[in-house]
Amino acid sequence: MAMTLTLIFTLGNELYGLEIDAVQEIIENPVVHHVPRAEGVVGGAINFHGQILATVDLPALLGFSGAPRDPRQVVLTAKFKSLALSVSGIQRIVELDLSALRPPPASAQKSAIRGVTTLDQTTINLLDCNEVINQLEHFYAQ
Amino acid sequence: MDMSQYRGLFFSETREHINNLNKLVVTLEQEPGHRETINALFREAHSIKGMAATMGFDHTARLSHRLEDMLDGFRASGEVSAPVFDYLLDGIDLLEGLLDDLQGNQPERSIDAFLRKQPQPPTQKVDDPAEENLADNALAVANAGAPGAVSITIETGDDKSAESPVRGAAAEEPDLFQVLVDLLEDTPASAARCLLILRELAGSGELITSKPDMASLRQGEPCERLQAWLRTSLTKQHIEEALRKISGVANVRFIDDRRQRERSSSDEAGRTVRVRTDLLDQFVNLTGELITRRYMLHSAARHQDWNELTQSLTETGRLIDDLHHHVLQSRLMPLENITGRLPRIVRDLSRKADKKVTLRLIGVDVGIDRVVLEELTDPLVHLVRNAVDHGIDKEGVVTVTARRERDLVLIEVADDGRGMDPELLRRKAVEQGLLTARQAEGLSEHDALMLVCQPGLSTAEEVTETSGRGVGMDVVKAAVVNLGGTLAITSAPNQGTRFQMHLPFSIAIIKLLMVSCGGHHIAIPITRVQRMLDLPSGEIEGSAVQRVFRLDGEIVSLWSLNRALGLPEEPAGEITWVVLTELMGRRIGLQVDRFLGHREAFVKKIGFPLNLLTGLSGATVEGDGRVVFIIDPQPLLEERQLLDQDWTPGGPDALS
Asked: How many domains does chain B have?
């Protein structure tokens, strides 16, 4: 059984997973700079080793209103446009078997879930980074 | 010996030589028998031959050898006859094609047809060599007894003349793809049909190679599936339609060639730029001095010698400024690099349209940043094409002028032709539903002329091969604005048209005006700032919807940058701080909370999705680590104009 290192985090009360391969770095307490006209789903920008990256407010983008924000941020690899993601809470890194994902529940309309698996009897939603990018594109393309 | 490391150099140098060849042939044509020009041509061809032979590029070497031989003959006789020019230019085009092949890591195309050919007398049209070759083959096969082939030859001939405007109008980069053609089972004379298909393909673009190749088809080898690699600007649909007219064709499919994309990315990585050696020496000197300074700073810090420390810091600052200046210098390339191809373009265009056009180039040795120059190539060519095609009636002069104006470079394309009629543009814009009659009436003359940059607006009564399809000027304007520049048009009926592009000559490091809005720092490129004003707030007039103020006897609209950026506005004080900028030739005031001063800054590109936000053109990092975004007011103002259809900047509404 092939196991994949996966970062577990929360959005609101739901558990999400993200393959470590998609993660460039987890940064503690970055200074978030104001971005004019960003309007909601982009919370600001950070200076990440000299690159100016957008921080995406994932709970806001995916409709988890009122959720808390972890002071840490997850920076994705260049393959996923080096987005910095703000999430409700970063938990831990576990080994998951991602070979047998179940399809996401049809009810989750605005979700960015590429499949569902189980860890210790809890449901883990695998984050679909491409869908996050799609939704951002959609949000800003008028 | 491994020559691969010299490939990049070979390509950049050979393209330069080709550029010169084109220029020189056009010069020689105007002054045939000019000995020095013939000699120069010979030297260029000779250089290419030498380099290509060293690199082992056989076709390129043979072709340049042929050109060199011809030119050597002229050197001896001192005379060049008219039909030779076309032949030379065809040869130069073919050379360019060979370079494209090599750079795309593909086998060099065939040059045999060209080598077999002799310069044609002027009455005879010189065909594309590959095409002619194929036509010969098709006829040969037809004569060998394939029934019906002859009539199809005529049919495709008609086809070709009908499609040529389409070909010329497609301005995009040609696409490279694979065409797969299946013939019906048991098609008689399948080889002949395949040759016809190849001929059709060669007529719609650049046929690179095919499987089976022409040699085996010519021997009559039966074939049910033809595979061909084609580079063309035509749409796949168009090609498919043309092929389906050939009898026996069952199926046409296209496969995109990935090599095309790989090629462009490898081009990007391997790009070279030439730097003068004295400039490199300066780098070494400056870096040496900086290193020395560093030790002095260390020592001063260790001894806590404040005097020495301050002095060393000042000196370090001066060295960094120097270095910065030299680094920028090394990125500058003369505008000539892209104007070099204009004489050839103007020559070909004016011959095709049977016009007499003189091209004048003034001040083209001005240096411009490599990046700006690259982005400028297509817009400049387009403006010159437009001038020849639309500006000039039968005979005239097109002038390209370049000069520095403070932080900007002005590049101007002017013609002395029939000029543009603002009234006609207003009418067309209304006819085509781009403006209401009232809006059109309200436009100033300048704004009316700028309508040519609206996508979709075309005034050309008939579509010609080169321009007049309503594409182009919007692309030109977008390119100029993207570079942080402005485009202005002046024209009058029968007094010619003048397109002026003001461009920053470097874009990596620019001067910024820092302002404060709603507690945030905002940077505006200085190229977008006409003036900074501190107006007594009592001088602001107008309604809450549209505020205005008077400046030099003119009414100028005022709007809040805070509001445009979605930031809270401060209560009005005694002084209103205004950045005066420009939109479509009109001045507009942008109210800000405070001026923070000028600074030179390195512009950082901003990534997704920040690059989707209107008005954000980059970012810069301040000394305290604060990230400040650079705002280009132009798109913000244009967006507002779109939202508010009746609003024209400082227009009649503002006066009432």
From this structure: 5
Residue where a domain terminates, one of B473, B504, B535: B504
Confidence of residue A108 (pLDDT cuts 50, 70, 90): low
Q: Is A138 on the interface with B (CB under 8 A)?
A: no
In a domain, B460, yes or no: yes
Residue A51 at interface with chain B, using a CB cutoff of 8 Å: yes
Using alpha carbons, list the distances in angstroms from residue B307 to A19, B293, B421: 56, 14, 68
Q: Do B631 and A36 touch (CB under 8 A)?
A: yes
- In this complex, do B629 and A133 lie within 8 Å of one another by their Cβ atoms? no
The pLDDT value given to residue B482: 72
Nearest neighbour of A42 by CB, restricted to B520, B609, B619: B609
Nearest Cα to B195, choosing from B115, B125, B109, B131? B131
Residue B523 with chain A: CB contacts under 8 Å = none
The structure's pTM equals: 0.53
- Per-residue pLDDT for B517 more than 90? yes
**pLDDT confidence of B531, banded at 50, 70, 90?**
very high
How far is B494 from chain A, CA to nearest CA, in Å?
Answer: 42
CATH number at residue A121: 2.40.50.180
Contact yes or no for B609 and A136 at CB 8 A? yes
Taking an 8 Å cut-off on Cβ atoms, the answer to whether A36 and B567 are in contact is yes
Query: What CATH number does the domain containing B545 carry?
Result: 2.40.50.180
CATH code (residue B23): 1.20.120.160
Which residues, 6 or more positions from B433, have their beta carbon under 8 angstroms from its beta carbon? none
Closest CA to B174 of B128, B235, B94: B235
- Smallest Cβ–Cβ distance between B629 and the set A35, A56, A141 belongs to A35
- Domain encompassing residue A62: 4-140
Q: What three-state secondary structure class fits A114?
A: strand
Q: Please give the tally of structural domains in chain A.
A: 1
Chain A nearest CA to B641, separation (Å): 15
Its domain, for residue B614, covers: 509-655
The CA distance from A53 to the nearest CA of chain B, in Å, is 6
Mean pLDDT of B332-342: 87
B214, B232, B266: which is the final residue of a domain? B266
With an 8 Å Cβ cutoff, is A133 touching chain B?
A: yes
Length of chain A: 142
ipTM score of complex: 0.92
CA B115 to chain centre: 32
| DSSP code per residue over B376-436 | HHHHHHHHHHHIIIII-SSEEEEEEEEEEETTEEEEEEEE-SS---HHHHHHHHHHTTSS-
Quickly state the pLDDT bin for B158 (edges 50, 70, 90).
very low
Optimal mutation site among B569, B603, B629, interface A, most CBs of chain A within 10 A: B629
Name the residue among A53, A139, A141 with its Cβ closest to that of B607: A53
Domain membership of residue B638 (yes or no) is yes
Minimal-distance CA residue of chain B relative to A56: B609
